[in-house]
Write a structure and sequence with these properties.
With 188 residues, this protein is α/β, with parallel strands linked by helices. 33% of the residues lie in helices and 14% in strands. The protein has a single domain, classed as Rossmann fold (3-Layer(aba) Sandwich), CATH 3.40.50. The protein has a six-stranded parallel beta sheet.
């Protein structure tokens, strides 16, 4: 495929990288195997991976629950179509001025604002921030739900309460794009 003349090589490579990664995490049968009607919590929904995950959820008939960090980022997600036809921006949580919550923070946010999960625990949690959100992701996924993870931009050492994983039969899957794997190492 020819590189668009107005893009640098890095800019031209970025959409393919994040698109492939988001697809493998969310849509692929090797990932979360998202289906119509699923509720998908997406951390960082306006960024590179998150925006592709949001678009895959919207176009695949799922309900994206988009977590962003500012009103400006919330507007980006709204322009993609998330939050449409939902009163009071249901399915969109802005964490402006707050650190990403741990499991107790998610429980408090759900009581304060049920729109964090659209009223339902998510079938799938699209997890890529890592240390700051992983514990909350394991906690908030529905019983039997799936947490798909890659990257770990906020840190690779994740902490979570294993009772929420083990006792609720949740799944953790890791998926990455083949282009990001180290030579000679498996991609997932």
């Amino acid at each position: 495929m020819p590189k668009p003349a107005h893009l640098t090589w890095e800019e031209a490579a970025s959409p393919g990288l994040v698109n492939s990664t988001a697809y493998r995490q969310l849509v692929s049968t090797n990932g979360a195997n998202m289906k119509q009607g699923d509720t998908v919590l997406i951390w960082g929904a306006s960024g590179g991976l998150g925006s592709y995950a949001t678009q895959f959820a919207l176009n695949g008939g799922a309900t994206p629950v988009c977590v962003v960090s500012s009103p400006e980022k919330a507007e980006i997600v709204r322009k993609m179509g998330a939050g449409r036809h939902r009163p009071f921006g249901r399915g969109l949580q802005v964490l402006e001025g707050r650190e990403h919550p741990g499991p107790q923070g998610v429980a408090a946010l759900r009581q304060e604002d049920p729109s964090l999960t659209g009223g339902d625990d998510p079938d799938i949690v699209f997890e890529h921030p890592g240390r700051e959100t992983f514990g909350a992701s394991v906690y908030v996924a529905r019983k039997g739900g799936t947490i798909v993870t890659c990257a770990s931009t906020s840190g690779y050492m994740h902490q979570y309460d294993n009772r929420y994983l083990w006792m609720n039969l949740k799944n953790i899957k890791s998926r990455t794009s083949p282009t990001t794997a180290s030579p000679g190492k498996p991609t997932s």
